[in-house]
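REVIEWER CHECKLIST
Item 1: Sequence provided? yes
Item 2: Single chain? yes
Item 3: Sequence as submitted:
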Amino acid sequence: MAALNDLFLNLQRWFVGLLARFLPDWLVMVISMLVVSVMLIVTALVIVLWLTWLERKIVGRIQDRYGANRAGFLPFGLLQPIADAVKFLTKEDIVPREADKVVHLLAPVLMLGASVMLLAVVPFGKGMIGADIDIGILYLVAMSSLSAIGLLMAGWGSNNKYSLLGGMRAVAMLLSYEIPMGLSIVVAVMLSKSLSMQRIVEAQGGWFGLRWFAFFFPVGTLAFLTYFVSALAEVNRSPFDIPEADSEIVAGYFIEYSGIKFGLFFFAEYVNAIVVSSVATTLFLGGWQGPILPPYVWFFLKVFALLFVMMWFRGTLPRLRIDQLMGLAWKVLVPVGLANVMLTGLGIAIFRALGWA
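Item 4: Structure as written out by the authors:
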């Protein structure tokens, strides 16, 4: 079992040791960083392909149908994601004549780049992290803000009134829901006394499940619920998919995108869903903590459980109106988040005064 737990770490040590025999230290570091980056991108691509199939099957079952089950020779429609990928790569890329072609091109690239860069500080297991920096949480909050810029660029660069409306809605929603999301992150930081993703997970160790911050009632539970609801809005998942509301603004900010450019938006949205689920797992569900199974297995089980809830919501909940969307953020989640931070600080002060750990 120890060999399985440290499988990827042992492979990394072997690879670095092999390179160190022939190359200088600085080149070994550069190659290692490139390999880690490529592995993160490839892993994200494989997971996204599988998630598209899984979501179709789950939503299909919710709607009393089978879902994807025809494409290819494999059972259960397992080749459907491959067919979708080929379609994105082969469809014609159409750019509006009056569009700002540079901004139109850079928007999906920025969206995908920001999404993948967030994976660098996510700890998939003990020691399994691309960049273990002391301020990993601040890095996440800063990089996640780039998504709003990409959405606004897509809406503006397309020179289409519907795409502009979708971009403005997206920016208003992202800026609004970043505040309660940040307040819920502050609670996890206060409870763990660290900004490092690894140390936050370690602070939830022992007494399997009982020390996960999501079960620290009421402050940890409120923070987890606030984060998860805000995360649904941040990644445009139902019932918060108002920036791409097809019943009102046709498709929103990506209405003028086709082919591989639309595929990049599609890919970035799923990567963002993986990232927010991974962060929720890290901050509130004990990260890789768990008995018997290897740590990375526990991490992905928790992440997929949250992704399943997102898919469940998509198949059951109707889309909110824009006024309901903004009202939930400013009238409910922000006050709850502020009160929760104050209650957490008060509880920590009381515990210290009583001499309790």
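Item 5: Key structural point noted by reviewer: The chain has a mean pLDDT of 82.
Item 6: Recommendation: ____
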